[in-house]
Amino acid sequence: MKKIPISIHITFPLNRSLHGFTFWGSMGSGSFLLFNKLSKRAGLIFKGGRINGLQFHGIGNSTYASGKLLLKYQNLKVNILKSNSYEKKEFLSWAANSIIRTENPVNGYEREATIYYQRRSYEGFPSFFWKTIFSGIKATLIPGVEKANNKAADQLHGVSKKMQRRHHAQEKKEKRKAIQLFKKEK
Hints:
By secondary structure, the protein is α+β, with helices and mostly antiparallel strands. It has helices at residues 36-39, 90-99, 125-141, 145-185; strands spanning 6-11, 21-27, 30-31, 44-60, 64-80, 112-118. The protein is elongated, with a radius of gyration of 21 Å.
């Protein structure tokens, strides 16, 4: 079986109070057909296409992750499968191949997608991480997903920045109190 080299780096800084992490990685080139064992469970198989590379980076915490992903590929073709079967759904396969973007870059323009996923409380980290990366792959392949990812990420980053400002203000307040108490004890 052929292989595609993958490199993933995840950093969990110990000195961060917001329980965050950063991640980045890349994948080499190869055939989409190599992913059919994984994709069959989702009701999809790849009939053709070549991955020419993938790079991603982002940040996350215990509730969400976001970042950017660049997937370069060409000649993508898929089949949608019937439930509990490996038989092709003709109409849905035709529709899917009509909708998905069959290549990136197009005319020299590389589409970099937004990664965004909000974690469900019961999900473990591996599932959370995979669904985060998959959100960027979907945004690259399927028109309209990118807008939804951007909107959700922008809304969350606005809330997140407010929370960070409040957290920093609270930390400053606690430091001032600790300094005052220390001075009184002297």
